Amino acid sequence: MIPQERITVLADAAAVAAHAAQVIAAAAWDAVHHRGEFLLAVSGGSTPLPMFDALAELEIPWARVHLFQVDERVAPAGDAARNLTGLEEHLISKIGLPADQLHVMPVDAVDRVDAAALYADTLHRVAGTPPVLDLIHLGLGADGHTASLVPGDAALEATDDVVVTAPYQGHRRMTLTYPVLAHARRLLWVVSGPNKDEALDRMVWGDPSVPAGRVAQDRAEVVTDRVAG
């Protein structure tokens, strides 16, 4: 169970985005102060886009940041379905992140299984073995999925750090797995919008019947709005 003191419930989605951005910015400065760099992984979908806009407005030591993707849909470059498309528009295009410190999931590769292994190699090169990221941002679906760890998929039992899923809502996906999430120094759940109250409750209580409920909770915190929370 995630304790109540690590759950922040705010008025609306805009407040959630602004608060989550501040949490990430503070974590960035703390990591750079203590370890010289900040290793961040962000999830996709539409919910985090306002958070990315807010992050772009904050003073963050981007030159010391390595930015990873938590998951990505298999879709053409520039497609609206790609998480990278929104990430580039709402954040990357507005900040001074060095190009070699943006680590894009290679879903365009012909052999995506090998590509997932290469992405895992990058994780290990930057974040060690096992890879320890400073902060992983997670979202939550109404069905209880998080990242691209979706109900019934073989990825739920994966021991590799990065895998490719079966088709889900029209797309195969590449995703980080539970072992990577479990080693993160900090997990930040950002949850807003309707139809997520039951999934959020199950996640907070650690209900293993939904994918989100199986994520390690000892370093997790939640920022949500009154609709979802």
Poorly predicted ranges: none
Oligomeric nature of the chains: single chain
Number of helices: 6
Distance between the termini: 15 Å
- Going by helix content, strand content and strand pairing, the class is alpha/beta
Summarize the helix and strand pattern as letters: EHEHEEHEHEEEHEHE
Q: Supply Rg.
A: 16 Å
* Percentage of residues in DSSP E strands: 15-25%
Overall geometry: globular
What is the mean pLDDT? 97
Helix content: 25-40%
Number of strands: 10
Major beta sheet summary = 7 strands, parallel
Task: Provide structural commentary.
The protein has 229 residues and is an alpha/beta fold. It has six helices and ten strands. The protein has helices spanning 13-35, 49-56, 83-90, 112-127, 178-183, 197-204; strands at residues 7-10, 38-42, 65-69, 71-73, 102-103, 135-138, 162-164, 173-176, 187-191, 220-225. The strands form two sheets. A seven-stranded parallel beta sheet has the order 1-10-9-6-2-3-5, sandwiched between helices. It has a three-stranded antiparallel beta sheet with strand order 4-8-7. α1 crosses α2. The chain is globular, with a radius of gyration of 16 Å. The two termini are 15 Å apart. 41% of the residues are buried.
Overview features:
6 helices, single chain, 229 residues, 3-stranded antiparallel β-sheet, 7-stranded parallel β-sheet, alpha/beta
